[in-house]
UniProtKB/TrEMBL annotation:
Record key words, sorted: Metal-binding, Repeat, WD repeat, Zinc, Zinc-finger
Region (Disordered): 460-489
Domain (WDR59/RTC1-like RING zinc finger): residue spans on this chain: 633-673
CDD domains hit by this protein: mRING-H2-C3H3C2_WDR24
Compositionally biased intervals (Acidic residues): 471-483
PANTHER family in the record: GATOR COMPLEX PROTEIN WDR24
Presence of the UniProt keyword Metal-binding in the record: yes
Signal peptide coordinates: none
Species of provenance: Mucor flavus
Name of the protein this chain belongs to: WDR59/RTC1-like RING zinc finger domain-containing protein
WD repeat residue intervals: 102-144, 192-225
Protein's UniProt keywords contain DNA repair: no
Length: 686
């Protein structure tokens, strides 16, 4: 295979499984419509026997799994069918090769395996929830042993290569069990709750002590079956559900896996480095249905894409080599996390921060605290990076959250809303924002301000954008104090002016007239004021600054006075709602969506009407069951429900009902507990 690391052979149909002959020079492939023997040599793959030739279509031949006998039965092949049949094939038999058909399973047989030292002993795992052991030397009798796993189905079984009477089984419930054939009437020797969801595959380590399991929860776990620990030694998190796994021969820490769906690659993992595969094969068009090692470097695989592929580890790509060892990222709170490769570290890095290799361990590997049966520690890979977190206060998320919770967004009384919002901004140290709200309040006050100013102002209202490109973050303490002092003086001047009646403006003394000039100059005003153009300048300014919170709040307060196109409004609201969701300000986000007049934004409150219930202990979502445990209601108003029976109703109705009753209003008989909640809420509160 020099120069070309993958050899392909196109099959006539989809392939579900394969098995290698004891000599390693032939392989049997099986599927719904195919059962063939292929010969493998150094340069090519050739078909030598078609076991389905001349036979009519029969569900007995629709194979889920196939296994080649061992050294004692080199010419025997067993297949497991989708209808529950197990067929033993004799390759030396002339004519029809099927030697025996067993039909004792009532549902599909998922997996079969021969005992390592005895090719006449076969173990099967079925969808009917049972495991059965067959001795082909006794053709008259049925199954020699029957094992009940107390599960809906058994997904996989594998004999222990060292202790040949022990086997491990994978179950639909997510558990794996270890059994001993010498005690067929006893229950399992050990049971492990391995996966959240079905466990699809297991494989014994060559040392006979460890078992690897793969499940639909997208994990591969390694267990010490000789210890009492309920925690796995290693856990590998994959991108998709794991359908098949197999330890790599000659490499005690490496295991190969393929996915059930979505991922068409075969990954080889080093269990000590669980976060990224060591090697990856990407030769199939669809997810592989089966694979096995021919030797430590050569892998055989099949798929429903009809390809049988022989590939060498030298042709696999190494994902780790493609990774950059330096990285950076940040979160919404302004925390920046970084990693620096130790090999390229700068002089300022403290040598004490570097993890030294453990004596007796390879470089970049450390020992974990978990003990195995042989009193040896498990080995875990240590990444050769130094990591750290730095806080960069580029965004004041605390002020953002306070404003989101407390800003007034009602447009019923503009002056009151602006005064409250301005006072809040002042308390939070956002003095320029407070000025904005005070000026807007002055613009839309119920008492109009008019003045006869002899000297006209050259520019219309605008903020002093040249002094600061941000709201407040760049001002030092002295400038903040100046801003506060000038703000108080100008605020008092404006209050004096606004309190003057329309006829008294001409009677103001010279000092007051000077004040008018000072105020007009300070705020750069041209009287009479043009409100809408000034507000649009404000909105443009905050849009350029990226302050969508101010844009949305200003718009909602002044909505009845403004005429802005829906596209721009939608951009503001969408960006603001996304920020609120990032900070988990769900109630404020809902109120903002409800207040928006743009239909595309309002629909966001109508897209989801499902309420998910989480466990109070582990905070995981509670899945739906026949007795409830989940709620799906179109919610209008305050709605409450019982987490015991899942029935509920509007809060006011529940208060009325449980004022005199103890059981659920639906008549289900459940004693719902609402009274403790009612004791903390006034009954007259609406």
């Amino acid at each position: 295979m020099e120069g070309n690391y993958a050899k392909r052979e196109r099959m006539s149909g989809a392939v579900n499984a394969l098995s290698l002959s004891p000599e390693g020079n032939s392989v049997v492939v099986a599927g719904r419509e195919i059962l063939k023997i292929l010969s493998i040599n150094k340069t090519e793959i050739t078909e030598t026997l078609n076991l389905r030739a001349g036979s009519h279509f029969n569900l007995n031949y629709s194979s889920n799994d196939v296994k080649w006998g061992n050294n004692a039965t080199k010419q025997k092949v067993a297949t497991a069918a989708t209808n529950g049949a197990i067929i033993l094939w004799d390759l030396n038999k002339i004519g029809r090769k099927a030697e025996r058909v067993i039909t004792e399973h009532t549902r599909a047989v998922n997996r079969i395996c021969f005992q390592p030292d005895n090719g006449n002993i076969l173990l099967s795992a079925s969808q009917d929830g049972t495991m059965k052991c067959w001795d082909f030397r006794d053709p008259k009798n049925g199954a020699r042993y029957r094992f009940e796993g107390k599960s809906e189905s058994v997904r996989d079984v594998q004999f222990n290569p060292v202790s040949v009477y022990e086997f491990a089984a994978a179950f639909e419930t997510g558990t794996i069990q270890k059994w001993d054939m010498r005690n067929p009437k006893a229950l399992y020797d050990r049971k492990v709750s391995a996966h959240n969801g079905p466990c699809l595959t297991v494989d014994w380590h060559p040392n006979g002590k460890l078992v690897a399991s793969g499940g639909r929860d997208k994990t591969i776990k390694v267990w010490d079956m000789t210890a009492d620990s309920r925690r796995p030694l290693y856990t590998i998190r994959t991108m998709a559900s794991v359908s098949r796994i197999q330890w790599r021969p000659g490499f005690e820490n490496e295991i190969a896996s393929c996915a059930l769906l979505t991922d068409s690659r075969i990954h080889i993992w080093d269990i000590r480095r669980p976060h990224i595969a060591k090697y990856t094969f990407d030769e199939h068009d669809t997810t592989p249905t089966g694979f096995m090692w021919r030797n430590s470097n050569e892998l055989l695989s099949v798929s429903k894409d009809k390809w049988f592929i022989r590939q060498n580890i030298a042709g696999a790509y190494r994902p780790f080599d493609l990774l950059k060892r330096n990285g950076m990222g940040w979160n919404v709170q302004g925390d920046i996390v970084f990693s620096i490769d130790k090999s390229s570290r700068n002089l300022f890095v403290d040598e004490n921060l570097i993890t030294k290799p453990v004596n007796g361990s390879p470089k970049n590997w450390k020992r974990l605290g978990t003990k195995t049966a042989s009193e040896e520690d498990a080995i875990q890979y240590v990444p050769p990076q130094i990591c750290g977190i730095v806080h960069m206060p580029l965004f004041d998320f605390e002020a953002f959250s306070v404003f989101a919770d407390n800003y007034i967004i009602s447009s019923e009384n503009v002056a009151v809303a602006c005064d409250i919002n301005g006072e809040l901004a002042w308390k939070m140290g956002r003095y320029r924002t407070a000025q904005t709200w005070k000026i807007i309040a002055m613009f839309y006050s119920d008492e109009p301000v008019e003045a006869d100013v002899e000297e006209s102002i050259q520019e219309s209202f605008s903020f002093d954008m040249d002094r600061s490109t941000t709201d407040d973050d760049d001002d030092d303490d002295d400038e903040d104090e100046d801003d506060r002092s000038s703000f108080r003086v100008r605020e008092e001047m404006l209050e004096d002016i606004s309190q003057s009646s329309e006829g008294d403006i001409d009677s103001l003394n010279t000092g007051t007239s000077s004040q008018i000039h000072i105020v007009a100059s300070s705020f750069n005003l041209r009287l009479p004021w043009k409100h809408e153009s000034v507000v649009m300048e404000l909105l443009n300014y905050y849009t350029e600054q990226g302050d969508v919170q101010m844009c949305v709040t200003l718009y909602l307060v002044l909505e009845k006075y403004l005429n802005i196109d829906n596209e721009r409004i939608e951009d503001w609201f969408t960006a603001y709602i996304d920020l609120l969701h990032r900070f988990k300000l769900w109630s404020t986000a809902t109120a903002i969506i409800k207040a928006c007049k743009v239909q595309n934004v309002r629909e966001r409150n109508e897209n989801a009407t499902t309420i998910n219930i989480a466990c109070n202990t582990c905070f995981k979502l509670v899945n739906g069951t026949s007795s409830g445990s989940w709620a799906h209601q179109t919610v209008r108003g305050l709605y409450v429900w019982c987490q015991g029976c899942n029935h509920g109703g509007h809060l006011s109705h529940m208060r009325d009902w449980f004022a005199d009753e103890q059981q659920c209003a639906t008549g289900c008989g459940h004693a719902c507990v609402l009274q403790p909640l009612l004791s903390s809420l006034p009954l007259d509160e609406e």
